[in-house]
Amino acid sequence: MAQRIMILATNGFEQSELEKPKANLDDAGYETVVVSLEEGQIKGWDEDNWGNSVDVDLTVDKADSSDFDALLLPGGQINPDILRMNDKAVQIVRDFCASDKPVAAICHAPWMLVEAGVVDGKTVTSWPSVRTDLSNAGGKVVDQEVAVDGNLITSRNPDDIPAFSKALISALEEQKNKMNEAA
Question: Which phi and psi angles does 182 have, rounded to 5°?
Fold first, then answer.
């Protein structure tokens, strides 16, 4: 059975930050599930205008982190700002972090990590305007294409997607190896 990755997003997600990591995960044989606040479709933001729509597979009120192996949080300025106002979405992030499953957040998505209270003492990166929030939340902020600290994987922007995807896939492989060794 393929490992399942929850992609938590809503309207205004940065199109490339959802579509490209999702494609990379799908191509590597993982099952990706788009989870959002409402059924139907969510619309991406493509640089300076609305972009493609993506089908929602599951709503946050029906989603359970225990059914997934990892969490992917695409950025976009609008997307995480809406999601962090939803208690269930924030709890999902907390649950993934508490279970030590990989949590990958890119660009503005680390706002969700701040809201969930899981940044303190962690080395993280993000879009420049989010870095003060990460620092204020107790994070050690670095400016590099990907920062991995325990189960947290963060990146700065769409240019970092190859390294971001590689780090998430590596974390999933490590998780799978640990599960096989335990079995």
Answer: -75, -25
Task: Classify each residue of 162-180 as buried b or exposed e, where b means 16 or more C-beta atoms within 10 Å of its C-beta.
Answer: eebbebbbebbeebeeeee
Residue written as token pair 């939340």: 137
Catalytic residue, chosen from 22, 84, 101, 108, is 108
pLDDT tens, residue by residue, 120-133: 999 999 999 999 99
Q: Reply yes or no on whether 97 is catalytic.
A: no
> Any catalytic annotation for residue 108?
yes
pTM for the full predicted model? 0.97
Identified catalytic residue from 25, 92, 107, 152: 107
- Helices 15-27, 161-182: axis angle to 10 degrees equals 40
User: 16-20, 120-124, 174-178: which range is least confident on average?
Assistant: 174-178
Please state the φ and ψ torsions of residue 53, each to the nearest 5 degrees: -100, 150
